[in-house]
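Example S7 (structure tokens).
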């Protein structure tokens, strides 16, 4: 006898017409749509009534993590909630559509999906050029953007160069955040402290000339003293050291298998 499962759908306002598609996602995801990325998670693009949607299926967890999910939020639900919050704060992200969860009869999430509009903006890393010649105008524009979201208390905890997308406009650059399940929203009315801000900026680039230029602009726009550059670089170097240590032991562990 097949185990009874329930499809739970949480939709953004105005998306009711998509319910039939959303309710069938657990069945059709693996066999339809255009594959965009496959790794720990999987992304596919679906065209529904002429509208392109990106669906992210999160990798399945072990039973212990699923049990925690009964009482907490899944990564798909966090992505959806965080996207709604970003929209409310005026920070660009692909329009959130829905969170879909396939749950067993006892409430365990077996498959979870986050659905949003498809946006074809290139990744930030494609424009910045971390080493050698770099796009100074884009670098300074991104510094202004980060000052703005930090002032709003937004901390993207996976701020790498693929999770920020950009587009050139007639009046400058626009930026968009994706991969939202690991985010924090600080309640402090002043936003992130300078220390918190520096820590949040460590992952999108190596410690290159471009990164130093970015930090100088970020510090200037925040109105911090120039001496803060040394602190920001110290935070970056410490992060990179421990990141390398972690990767070393991970490679070592993999070699033991």
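Recovered sequence:
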């Amino acid at each position: 006898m097949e185990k009874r499962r329930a499809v739970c759908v949480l939709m953004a306002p105005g998306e009711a017409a998509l319910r039939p598609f959303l309710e069938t996602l657990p069945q059709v995801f693996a066999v339809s749509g255009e594959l965009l990325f496959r790794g720990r998670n999987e992304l596919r693009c679906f065209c529904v009534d002429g509208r392109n949607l990106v669906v992210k299926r999160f990798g399945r967890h072990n039973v212990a993590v699923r049990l925690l999910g009964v009482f907490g939020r899944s990564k798909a639900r966090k992505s959806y909630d965080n996207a709604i919050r970003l929209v409310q704060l005026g920070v660009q992200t692909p329009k959130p559509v829905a969170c879909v969860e396939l749950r067993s009869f006892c409430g365990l999430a077996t498959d979870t999906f986050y659905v949003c509009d498809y946006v074809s903006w290139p990744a930030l890393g494609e424009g910045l050029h971390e080493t050698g010649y770099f796009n100074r105008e884009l670098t300074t524009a991104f510094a202004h953007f980060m000052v703005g979201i930090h002032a709003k208390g937004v901390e993207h905890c996976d701020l790498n160069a693929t999770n920020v997308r950009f587009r050139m406009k007639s009046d400058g650059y626009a930026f968009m955040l994706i991969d939202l399940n690991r985010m924090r929203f600080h309640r402090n009315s002043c936003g992130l402290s300078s220390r918190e801000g520096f820590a949040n900026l460590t992952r999108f680039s190596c410690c290159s000339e471009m990164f130093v230029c970015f930090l100088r602009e970020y510090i200037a726009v925040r109105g911090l003293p120039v001496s803060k550059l040394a602190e920001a670089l110290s935070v970056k170097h410490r992060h990179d050291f421990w990141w390398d240590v972690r990767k070393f032991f991970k490679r070592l562990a993999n070699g033991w298998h």
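Notes on this example. The helical segments are 19-28, 63-71, 75-89, 124-128, 136-151, 194-200, 209-221, 228-255.
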